[in-house]
UniProtKB/TrEMBL annotation:
Keywords: Hydrolase, Metal-binding, Metalloprotease, Protease, Signal, Zinc. Residues 83-222 form the Lysine-specific metallo-endopeptidase domain. Pfam families: Aspzincin_M35. The keyword Signal applies. Its cofactor is Zn(2+). Belongs to the peptidase M35 family. It comes from the Eukaryota. This is Lysine-specific metallo-endopeptidase domain-containing protein. Gene3D superfamilies: Collagenase (Catalytic Domain). Residues 1-27 form the signal peptide. SUPFAM superfamilies: Metalloproteases ('zincins'), catalytic domain (SSF55486).
Amino acid sequence: MVAMNLAASVMLGLSALTMCVAHPTAATDITIFHRSAEKTATFPGCSDKQVAVLKKAIDVAVEYQAESWEYFRTRGLSPVHTDDLERFTTWFGKFSLQNYRIVRDRFKEMSAYPLASWTYKCTNEPDDCGGRIAQFFNIAGSRRDSKGEILICKGFWFPNSGSDARNGQTIIHEASHFNSVRGEGTNANLPETYGKGECLKLAEKHPEQAIHNADNYGFFAQYPDVPHLLSG
Ligand SMILES: [Zn+2]
């Protein structure tokens, strides 16, 4: 049991304003969690430095979840312009209405997840993670009121892996594992495929797996601009 680091709790709403007066360093909290007034993210086991990185990552992930859903919302349930789906086909393979709707539904559901009120728990124990950089723990309940918990593993902090964009991608990845009203999250019964190159290949060769692979969801969210991605 890891004791809660009180400094790691982000207080919001009126209490945040009070907190800001007492602790000027908390001022950025209001900006970071402006979409989630009255929510409280907690960071048990995390150092102040880790909390600062995680707050930025959550902020990025919140932007990603909104932007990703906007992509599908604006294209509707049955997109007619399939040449306008390069981003979808890049990460989820050849277009089919069935696959499109599976991915769309998941992003729609994910867009409601209160990422800024989940628990982000830090661990330095290799045994807790089995080599992963993060791990999702499902806490059952409806998508709006249940609190997810993401275990942040040692690998998350390795040098060169820690851009805000990359960390935001990790949170979207983990969030896609969330098991809520759909009954199961991504990769419920499949091995996971990780990394940009492998995920691009998975989409090309096995769309039926890509549409259930968490990292593909993360990369879709991270890279709205496909031509830029491919040339870079
Ligand atoms: Zn995963």
